[in-house]
Amino acid sequence: MSDHNSAEIFGMMFRLVDKEILCVESRTKFATALWNASRKYDFSDCQLECDDALKRLNLAEVGFDPDHPDEEMMLYGPPEDRR
User: Alpha-carbon distance 41 to 21, whole Å?
Assistant: First the structure.
């Protein structure tokens, strides 16, 4: 499977988790496991095309990267992994 298709499938799954799983603890566990599984593929996080869902799942936020302090950008991953 191409990594572009993988990104599309993972993005769809994150959107479903965001919409369909109501229990916060279950959402967090499932979303974190899904995030970890997605790291095995070679696509950029923006290719997931689900930034809003990732923000609600606490897997992304708008902020400043220390390497680019003058530019606000999307920071991806669990809070402990973000720069």
Answer: 24
